[in-house]
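Treating backbone geometry as a discrete language has practical consequences that deserve illustration. Part of our work consisted of pairing the sequence of a single chain with a tokenised description of its backbone. What the numbers capture is local backbone geometry rather than side-chain detail. For completeness, the protein is quoted in full, as a sequence line and a line of structure tokens:
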Amino acid sequence: MILSRYLIREMLATFGAVMLVLLLMAFSSQMVGLFAKVAAGTIQVNTVLTLFGLYSVTLVPFVIPIAMYIAMLLALTRLYRDNEMAVLAACGYGPFQVLRPVLVVAVLVTLLQAVFTLWLGPWGDAQGERLELLSRESVNIEGVTPGRFRTLPQGLGVVYVESINAERTRIFNIFAETKQPGRNSLLVAESGHMINDPQSGDRYLVLENGYRYEGAPGSDNFAIIEFKQHGLRIEDKATQDIRYRHRSLPTRTLLASHDPGQLAELQWRISSALICLVLAVLAVPLSRTSPRSGRYARLALAVVLYLLINNLLNLVRSWLAAGTLPAAIGLWWVHILILLLGIGLILWQTGAWRRLFRTGR
């Protein structure tokens, strides 16, 4: 019991440290992505912190399994490096005995993962998606920087703005170049504002009191057109960064669904919790190393194996969403294979396979 408490304390402490480092990396990447959306004009700057908080909740379930896996590897590898595991083995405390406190930690982490992946994650994703949509529908000129050129959708031109009002609702002294098949146009306008088309969802910059120049100067087809208002499409709804809709659906909705995509999402959520238990079993044999080896001797191999497992799960998930693989088979066979691999490695390291083979003979 004392040894079990000691191992549990070591793994939990390491898990907290690894979790903190990985979350800081994930949160930094998330913040950079949000400011990129502000620069692109798809969200307002005053919604960044709220979106960061909501989407941070969705990042946690992606970090928990790998953090637990690495933490167990580091904690158990340290025992081998410091010869503590050799002493424990001499006292009859082998890999199967180590597996018990490992599974205790894994069950706690699995419950935490289930809370995030089944409830908090979808809620944060849905709230963030709703806030992004409301931000896009705002008429504020977010993302337009005075004194800098902005590219139009599909590279169909550029827009330059000299100044913008304090409320960020109107821009002044605008220059724009649009490119169309066989024709380029230049536009200059005194002012402008942003609107959203309620039917198409496209975002338009409405130019006011300006001129449109078409054709080549000095040629017969050159024209100067004066306008009071002129619409210029800034953002196409089809090209907006829409998040996966299934990720934002509540788990109770997925439970009642028969859609392959939603069933794949449901199995993925359950799978991301169960994978913690499977990875815990796999971490026990992978952590075994020589005392002369470094603390990170097996870490690279273990991380590569984790990436292969994660890629396999994503591949099977895509098969489920496409209807190629029946939902009854689902993702579970991947977990069973990994679990058998972990148990098989433990049996091989403890010599149980050889004893079984001799008994069979």
User: Anything to note?
Assistant: Residues 149-239 form one domain.
